[in-house]
Amino acid sequence: MSAVSVRNCLVHLKQVERKLAEQVVKAASIEEKRIYSDAMIQVSEVIQDMKRRIIKMEKIEEFAGKE
User: Fold this and answer.
1) Cα 32 to the center of its chain, rounded Å
2) What does the pLDDT look like over 3-52, one tens digit per residue?
3) Phi/psi at 27 (nearest 5 deg)?
4) 2 in the Ramachandran plot: left (φ > 0), alpha (ψ -120 to 50) or beta?
5) DSSP sequence for 2-33
């Protein structure tokens, strides 16, 4: 998988994160808010991890392109 493909996945995850944030605001009960908030935190952690991996992948692809 290329860094570009992973970036596309990242875009979709950011959309999911935004939708979860909207649901936190719209949720009627505290329990619903907690569930959506927990899910949003997990997605945010995945997004941060993917950003780090994309940087590594781009460096590898750049290095491979110079050979």
Assistant:
1) 21
2) 889 999 999 999 999 999 999 999 999 999 999 999 999 999 999 999 99
3) -60, 140
4) beta
5) -HHHHHHHHHHHHHHHHHHHHHHHH-SSHHHH
Task: Kindly state the tokens that stand for 59.
Answer: 């460096």
Contacts of 32 (CB under 8 A, 6+ apart): 23
Amino acid letter, 8: N
pLDDT of residue 64: 82
Query: How many structural domains does the chain have?
Result: 1
Query: Domain range spanning residue 11?
Result: 3-66
**Amino acid sitting at position 6:** V
